[in-house]
Amino acid sequence: MFIWQLVAVLAVRGAAKSFSGLETSYRFAQLTDVHIEPFYNPERGHLKGGVCRVPEAFNKSSCVPFKVEPEAATYPLGRLNCDPPFALLRSVLEHMAHVAETEKPDFVMFTGDIPSHQLSCQFHQARTIEMVIEMMAEKLKKVAPTWFPAMGNNDYFPNYNVSMEPNSPWQQFVASIYAREGVLSGEQLKTFAAGGYYSASPRPGLKVIVLNTVVWSQKVLDWNAAPKKHVHHHQDVSEANLYHGPDAPLDGSDTSGWVWDEDVASKKIFVDCDARPADPYGQLAWARQELLEARSSGQRVIVAGHVPPGNKVGSNNFCQQHLDDFKRLTQDFADIIE
What we know:
By secondary structure, the protein is α/β, with parallel strands linked by helices. It contains 8 helices and 15 strands. The strands form 5 sheets. It has a 4-stranded mixed beta sheet. A 4-stranded mixed beta sheet has the order 2-3-7-8, with no helix packed on it.
């Protein structure tokens, strides 16, 4: 079973047949592309580019203090052509908990894209990611015993600005939030912090492999080559951090040492597919080993990620070499992939 980018909450039921012929049924829920807009205000916000954002937070040349807008009197759960507010996510998670009372899913898949589109600065992006993960970690306790997150392209700042090298500060930061909320630990945390991928076994006979498919996309931003403009930070932002603590789970988790002073890309330039590593982070080699181990132990496998491998508007989502490698991998293990 391949789980890719969707725009809805799904209740999914499956049956994994082990090599012994015994059938292992399972059930899971999926949540994806929540794109939460912290500055949502449909009454005085700019309705532009898919966002309804207060004017002072819409200016991409400045980074104002982070303040979640109160629940709107009109369109409180969002409106057409706008990224949604926190109120909608809260409502969805509470409804999932209600449905779970009877459906009882074994786990939840969250396939990425936490923040709204086109946020003005890294601090807004980081703060939104932190708040959404906190809310999901709390609310999903009433839905299933565990949940498995994936990285989406909007979970990087700017969009698609994913490093080709492992253990980037931003990847470490996102991983540290999941660690702090008890979502990832041990080997899962180690590989997610390195490159946004990991595996888990939510029940006997079943393995979930979560891949970072953003790094295979044709749209990976070439940060070094892109022209940039400076973002002016309000003093409160320059002096802010997300959280403190001597027991930070990862080196990149405590942002008190980060300098919220930055440039942003004023024009998108993508990393040429031919100039990329053959296997960023060694992720494909790792996935092949995970699949070999699953086959030897009689497990069925769900493969999940955010950016799908298919064709979009006449162009592959993945670079051709990554598409070929991924296709070969899934063909080699078609006997165990759900």
